[in-house]
Amino acid sequence: MEEYISLAHGDGGELSHRLIKEVFMEAFGDGNAALFDAAAITMSTHKIAVTTDSFVIKPIFFPGGSIGKLAIAGTVNDLAVSGSIPAFLTCGFVIEEGFPIKDLKQIVSDMAAEAKKTGVSIVAGDTKVVERGSADGVYINTTGIGIYEPGIDCSLEFEEGDAIIVSGTIGDHGVTVLAAREELGISAPINSDCASLNRMLESVLRQCNGVRIMRDPTRGGLATTLVEIAEDFHLILQIDEGKIPVKKEVHGVCDLLGFDPMYLANEGKTILIVDGREKDKVIDILHEFTEGRDAVVIGSIINKGKGKLFLETSIGSKRLLTRLSGTMFPRIC
């Protein structure tokens, strides 16, 4: 196997064939499988969830993960928060000429390991190679398919007093990636929260009937995601600043650079709005999983009406929160 990607790896010939067989098929499945243009999948139900995403993170390797792990976890989480059981993924690669084969192998190895952990199958893919300078190493696009099981779903029926839960500390991913870029000369002893949450969320849905909605607060962070929920479903939400879990390392970087952790990206956290009478049960279930050990109730639905999100500050005042305006920093996922 060559050490670097060349344009010939994308021309559909022998090098393309070897790249697929020796890198992708070796990691994702049977190396002797027939390479058809589409995968035939037998579905156990007629109701499915479909999502697609693209990953262009810089750097492609960071503490706690890589673009490969992120591609699987991000897609799986999009399916899981919809209430479906993630089942199948496809992946497409855009690779720059000159990209090291050893790095590509590490990326697909990370993808294979995360897929195995989550129980999803990578069933189809595509590879394109572009000229040197036309891409920044490698980009990955995914499509995910999830299956809805009868009786396991989010109700989307909200009531005053419903509890708002976040499954753990916020801003970890954003700060980790920013520090890994070394552009601002900062360092933070913290890892990205990049993780697949489908096992944890499936457990919540199977044991609780009062889950209203689940969302993953990725780009735009916790505040933007809650504003979107409030606006989409005409709810007035209120969260308590003192209850929002933030690691001291994240607070330190935010204080230094003027960022607000409420708007930093997360890649292994979930927001859940649940029946207030089931909040303790949901918290107990989340605490059974490593990814949910810091889960906490941070607020509630206080009314219905024009969608708004209020933050109760540490001094007792209330502040209206809006969506993220502009970009804190690009290429975060």
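the 2nd protein, sequnce then structure:
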Amino acid sequence: MKITVVGLGAVGGLLAARLALAGHQVSALARGRTLQAVRERGVGLRMGGQVQHAALQASDDPAAFGPQDLMLIALKGQALPGLAGTLAPLIGPHTLIVPAMNGVPWWFLQTPALQARFTAAQRQLDSVDPSGDTGRVLPLSQVLGCVVHLTCSQPEPGVVQHGFGDRLIFGEPAGGVSERVNRVASVFAEAGFKAEASHDIRREIWFKLWGNMTMNPVSALTGATADRILDDPLVRGFMLRAMAEAAAVGAQIGCPIEQSGEERLAVARQLGAFKTSMLQDSEANRALEIDAIVTAVHEIGARLGMATPNIDTVLGLVRLMARTRGLYPASV
């Protein structure tokens, strides 16, 4: 399969390396030191005590590769709106577009089931697609939803370190399992991932978001690992209240949560003293992925007329912290 990975950070690098090593024709959009490193040495993959190098084409120009069978978008949410307009050369009439990204994707309210609940203007989420360019350039008919359940890091440009987990979930935005979903899942399964097809990918997206919507910003605000956050009863209580608000919002948009907040935090506790992706970005002085993970939940709740005081609080605090440090756009 002819595949381009857009963004060679930790997740993008891991996906690109394993797909290339599985024999696919993989290219990648990258920039700066990462682009230079991949052109010289390929992507270095540290996994299971071994180091492998995957050769692939790399460029900072989407026109270098032409239309693809599959385009994987592995960017931070805040990077996509500015880049979406440049991706058209990669998209042919049969290209499948798979955003392997955290949080709420741009298409989340665009599904037929929500047309009666929201106006056309309300279905465009300003938090993740402020200009509407992403939705215009990336046709919904060619999009598959994806949820990534794994951890990895990028210790240096062009090198990725796998942590734990290798589960990927794929599904149709409108729901149901299709031949193309099964085909994409098979490609990733053959590359060594635990890939599966979901009948309701929106619900899978919201479930993951429900779990990391609080842990991520709280870790960035405090600098604490997950175990220390969960050991503080006041912080834990605050997180549970915010999770209850997000669960209530999800129930109104067809994404009910069956697990309790305590059950979800018990799962996080089993992972030990890990650093969330937002904490890693904060420590590295990289832009924080606030909008897709927190702002979008606040925005959907507001459009439903629902009060979300705890979500609003964590959003206001983490956004102000990030703006103070230059890790989030200044207020207009």
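The mean pLDDT is 95. The first helix runs from residue 10 to 21.
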